[in-house]
Structures are given as C-alpha cells and as structure tokens.
C-alpha cells in the first residue's frame, strides 16, 4: 500500500506547493513531492557535505545541499529558512534539528505505533535494524523473487531495508531516525490516526 500512498502524497504535495508561501512548508512539500524518502534523502545530502562531521552546516553548505538535491529555492528564500533554523544566530544550523522540524508533524499515537514496529524489528535491541534482526521477524520465503530463484534470502532482506534507508547511502542499517523519517512521509498522506494505526498494525502484525 505504501507505493500508492507515496503517489497520492506526491500529488497532494505538488498541489499544495502552489498555495503556500511559508518557506519551510514549501521546502517540506518539495521533499514530500518525491515520496516518503524525500526528507531523508535531503538529510543524506547534508551528511555527505558535512566534511568535518560537525553535524552543522553554514549557509554556503546549506545552499549547496539544496542545489545538489535539486530543490527549487531562490537565495532570499534559502536565507529566510536558514534564519529560522539558526536560532542562536551563530551562522550555522544543526541539521538533525533541521530534519526533525522539516518532518511533517505526527501525533504521539502515531509515533508510538511506529516505535512499536521498530522495536519488533530490532531483535537485538541496539537501536539499529540490520539483516540479522530481520531473520527472526520477516519471512523472505514469501517474496516472489525468492520463490523464482532470482534473489537469495539476504537479497530480499537487503531490498526490504533499502526501503527505509536513504536513496544515496544505503548501508543496510536502519536507525530509529531513518525509520521515523520514512513513516513521517507515509503519515503525511494519511488523514486519521485511526487509519494510520490500523495500517501499521496490519503491516507489522502488532
């Protein structure tokens, strides 16, 4: 069902884009127009640019990141967004904070069910989902590519993890933050908490 939600969300985001003047909302909608992984993808672009691992960006890096990710934003708008996030006026922004603010807001009920799914998958309880974790929870043998001999069990697991991992830097590990970012995208396309929770329960047998 996620692919359909993704399409609906992208169409909705593009539609709303023409209506909003709020720069942060415009950036959020441009990310969502790329589907559930849109915001996460932007995060990865910033991470790649953060050469000194400071987890912060100055304005020049920020603009370069937006351009590399092909975001349609003019310099004035970028300055305005940067100012909103540079709360202490230090000339740098913390990009974890930036991504959390960019994520569509979710109710606590939604966050809680997402975390339940994460904990179920994270068999080892170390806060990261890996192929090892999936062995006990996710049955690869039902996958059509496994059944017709195209993929091994590990390839099925890896493809599954890649859904949540970011498009540019797939490392086969999914952190809580990546999982939450992914579902913030999915969540944006689902109007009611009740429906979102039912969908999660069915998807993860919670």
From TrEMBL:
Annotated ranges, domain EF-hand: 37-72, 73-108, 109-144
CDD domains documented for this protein: EFh
Keyword annotations of the record: Calcium, Metal-binding, Repeat
Coiled-coil boundaries: none
One Pfam assignment: EF-hand_7
Superkingdom of source: Eukaryota
GO molecular function: calcium ion binding
SUPFAM superfamilies according to UniProt: EF-hand
Protein name per Swiss-Prot or TrEMBL: Calcyphosin-like
